[in-house]
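S1.2 Input.
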Amino acid sequence: MTDAGLPLPTDDELAPEAREVIAALPPLNVFRAVAALPGSLRPFLELGASLLSGRHLTPAERELAILRVAHLTDAGYERQQHEQLAAAAGLDDAEIEATALEDPAAGLDADGALICAATDEITRDVRLSDATLARVRERWGDDGARELILTVGYYNMVSRFLESTRVPLEEGNPLGDTDPERLVREARERAG
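S1.3 Output.
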């Protein structure tokens, strides 16, 4: 057995329904890898789409959390895709780069620093400290805290799946100039 990872399924190896779903999405290897588990594909897309279109975090705040997860889990695939989405959500290069610093607070505003601190605790310690949870609840409310926690948990799962299966990066720029909001709308339509 080699360290090459799990092979991406070909179209012929996918269930017809899974093939139809991924044909309507951007040609990302993450979708193809999950499509090998047809019973998981729609729920995976549906949960991801629900988080990307959440009501309590701005797209930029959400991308800060996702980029921090990608940094902490050393998930290059996740980082590459979400750097592009973060820029489209309005984060500048310095903010994106700050998520990969040992102390991201140095390059972020107070909300961004709090998002990264919460992401660090969830990712490294599994749970938020009482103090950080209180700060997150104060800033975004209970539902905002739930949304942040679920987003960080979901993207931790995604990064672990990507890295453990060794999903390869795509050649070129498969997202192209995709509008992130359109991507979210289309993912929701395909998932549900």
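S1.4 Remarks. The two ends are 38 Å apart (CA to CA).
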